[in-house]
Specification:
Blueprint lengths: L2 H23 L9 E3 L5 E3 L2 H14 L5 H24 L6 H10 L5 H19 L9 H20 L6 H17 L6 H9 L1 H5 L6 H19 L2 H18 L4 H7 L1 H8 L36 E2 L4
Length: 310
């Protein structure tokens, strides 16, 4: 890894941690706006999502790629974070998955999830049109493949954000595979470093990425694949993304992971065992005028919405 890529990773991690600390100190619209209940029934904050997106974008701007590729990465991540954040805050979760959103649309209802998918698809296409990626990847067919990679990756990483640390581990694993396949994708370091910087908060079940964070990380991985792999390899990656996304409509990833020994071990690595109390972060829960998002015992207050994703 070159010195510029090391700097990119360091910037991504530093900005992610700093942004998280600032957001926790003064959460926009109050802490309760960002508080959700996880799979244990404990309160967690969604503020890790905007923080990791900010860190990943800052790192992407410093990556050792072309100017157009850096702009494409930021465009893809910003769009994914914005539309993902919209779904985080405004979504009611009555419809989930492609089938759920398309079913609602067939009855004349535009869900926040459908709006998010359309928005990420549009920004993914914009990023594909902006990206340089070399002379072999500038034709119309390649632009379509690249747009699908960005949007598909954004959605797929979000599908893994069902348990603490899972989406971040998936990001790190996918990033490692990309580096191995491409011989050194320069734009991989930023999303992986930003995610790793907030891994302790995610594993400690004090925060979660939400759609904003997971979609942004996935979009950046998609840009990295689009700008570093040959067409044949990009098509192979896209086929895996499409296959896993289709499978998620019928199969629970969590059930598969829990039934598979090696996957379950990796999934539980660093996580808090059942029954062990949560260690609280020393960072502030809310600003001095904010609304506390957590009651004693880790239970959400009456303004807190459930988060079925965790």
């Amino acid at each position: 890894m070159g010195s510029r890529n090391v700097r990119s990773a360091l910037i991504a991690a530093a900005v992610a941690r700093t942004a998280y600390r600032l957001l926790r100190g003064r959460p926009p619209a109050g802490a309760a706006t960002w508080t959700r209940t996880n799979h244990r029934g404990e309160s967690v904050t969604l503020l890790a999502g905007p923080a990791v997106a900010a860190g990943a974008m800052a790192g992407a701007l410093a990556a050792g790629t072309s100017r157009r590729d850096r702009l494409a990465a930021v465009l893809a991540a910003a769009g994914a974070a914005a539309f993902g954040g919209y779904d985080d805050l405004a979504g009611d979760r009555r419809s989930t998955g492609f089938r759920g959103h398309l079913g609602a649309l067939s009855h004349g209802e535009l869900t926040t999830g459908a709006a998010k998918l359309a928005g990420i698809g549009a920004t993914g296409l914009a990023a594909a049109l902006v990206a340089d990626g070399g002379s072999r990847r500038v034709g119309p067919t390649d632009r379509v493949i690249n747009a699908a990679l960005v949007a598909g990756s954004a959605n797929l990483i979000n599908l893994f954000d069902l348990r603490p640390g899972r989406a971040i581990k998936a990001t790190a694993l996918a990033g490692g595979l990309l580096v191995a396949a491409s011989g050194g994708a320069a734009s991989v370091g930023a999303p992986v470093a930003a995610a790793a910087a907030l891994l302790p908060e995610d594993l400690g079940e004090r925060a979660m990425l939400g759609d904003a964070g997971a979609n942004a990380l996935g979009a950046l991985l998609g840009v990295a694949a689009a700008t570093s792999l040959r067409r044949r390899d990009r098509l192979a990656v896209l086929s895996v993304i499409v296959g896993l996304t289709a499978a998620s409509e019928f199969v629970s990833f969590t059930e598969v992971i829990e039934r598979t020994g090696s996957l379950r071990w990796l999934d539980m690595l660093g996580r808090r065992p059942a029954g062990q109390p949560r260690s609280e972060s020393a960072e502030p829960e809310a600003d001095r005028n904010g609304t506390a998002g957590q009651q004693p015992g880790g239970q959400a207050d009456e303004t807190t919405r459930l988060a079925p994703v965790r």
